[in-house]
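Subject: sequence -> structure tokens, single chain

Hey, anyone have a minute? Need the predicted structure for the following. Not urgent.
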Amino acid sequence: MQAAAAAFPAPTASGSGPLLTGDLSVLTKKPKRSIQSKALTGIAGFDEITGGGLPRSRTTLLVGGPGSGKTVLALQFLAHGARACNEPGIFVAFEERSKRIVGNAESFGWSLAESQRKKKLYFMDAQPRHDLVQSGDFDLSGMLAALEAKTREMKAKRIVFDALDVVLALLPDVTAERREIYRLHAWLLARELTGIITLKSGADETNSISQQPFGFMQFMVDCAVILNHSVVLGVSQRSLRVQKYRGSGFDENESAFLIGNSGFDVAVAHTLSRVDAKVSNERVSSGIARLDTMLGGGYYRGASVLITGFSGTAKTTLSGAFAEAACRRGERTMFVCFDTNSTEVIRNLLSVGIHLDRYVKSGRLRMISARAITGSAETYLVRIKALAKEHGARCVVIDPVSAWSKSGNDLSTQSVADRLIDWSKGEGTTLVCTSLLDEMSGQGEGGSQLQISALVDTWIHLNYLIQAGERNRGLSIVKSRGTTHSNQVRELILSDAGVTLADTYTAGGEVLMGTLRWEKERAERGVHEAAEVAAKLKRVRLDAEEAELEVRLKSLQTELVAKQVEKALLVRTTQSDKGELSRGRTQMKELRGADAAIPARKPGPP
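Reply:
Had a minute. Here:
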């Protein structure tokens, strides 16, 4: 066993350093400048929450339980500074060996080994030895002296002290702990280093730093961040909260985060994305011609569409029709299946004339079986965003988004669903989501429907109408912003020829579908046909009567002409007889030689 003076190895090429000897003069030094800028962390979302990153040339306290991601966040901060900001950094490991840390971080693609070769990163192993026996007092001044030399050599700007509590636990009392913490903080300020100190917290002590054994440090540092890792309803949930940030505004709310393929990914709701996003008046087809007509021309480009309904109401079918129409237009599309394997979805849609397999083979359509994505709803969102970006998708289908209600508590799931809509708006992606309703409660899966209907642009509802002992699918448009959409309930018909909507048919104030409609239409056709036959018979009878009248009219016209001729002949005959008689009398007088008549004598005198 060795004494405390030999508890920490001397500096080596790999980067270790002593912890002994003391010089408290650093406590009298004052920082040369105040917070004038911030150091970007390169962590998606976190830089937005903090308004630009961590306070430059100041110290940040990072507190979290086991597995909460303290080391990953701190290491990503250093890696980003080395690669993107030309700010060399030093990582002091008090708990885990630097080789293991670098090896574990290889999957993130930060190129730590390359940064080490370029002398942009330096790892110091400062773990207490396992056979340590404390003998006398010790302090951190020896280690700080070694770091001082390395800082000047590298011109380091960033530094991380990971798991400082491991060393502080070796100190004899609280007074010694406070002394060394203030020594370290003063040393950081004097060198104008942007530093992170990580500390472990208990499993039930993550809501406030003040509850921690070294809670007084929150009053000393300029920024304090709490990391939480818990399990809710069997689902892992990670979140962080910025507890304080001197001299800067920040988002005080708790934000979910993931540790993904590229490191930390903090969820941030882009509340201004809808205002800033470009609004398009272009319409895209839903894949069903008659539905496009009901919508006044189809969906808007970049709109969010929600299709709700019970199981078996053809939500997936409508989604598949949209995906096929998008691929037919030449747009790259992604279809995420939660309830069914993607190959089964392709096979099932063939029965209604929707052929997605050809577009999958061409690479235009990407089918994702989301059951392969395990974790929280936050995991789903991050993966979907990453896959959509990788595929270059202009259209995304999620079937059903209500499956997220099984992934954690309602509040976190609702937040993820809201940010899904925000993301699609910001990217200009046309998003179609389905939501499964519970047949008994009318709510989403698990009895808690995601309340995203107020956020989406178009809401289509599918339901069953039971008439004459059979179920028929009905479709109605609950809302469609910016369109003069139909308010009718239409029957959705699925057949080998494809998907279509029947004309609206009402009788007695009720919309009829299926067999009842067919019987009613057949009865009406019979009545119509009988009326047509009766009309034809009456037409024939009227034609015959008209012909008869025309014959009688012609006969009367002929008789009239005969009478007129007879009358004219009678007139001519009468006139001829009178003339002959007059001429005969004259001729007789001449033959008799009769004297001319003696004119009468005028009266006069005798």
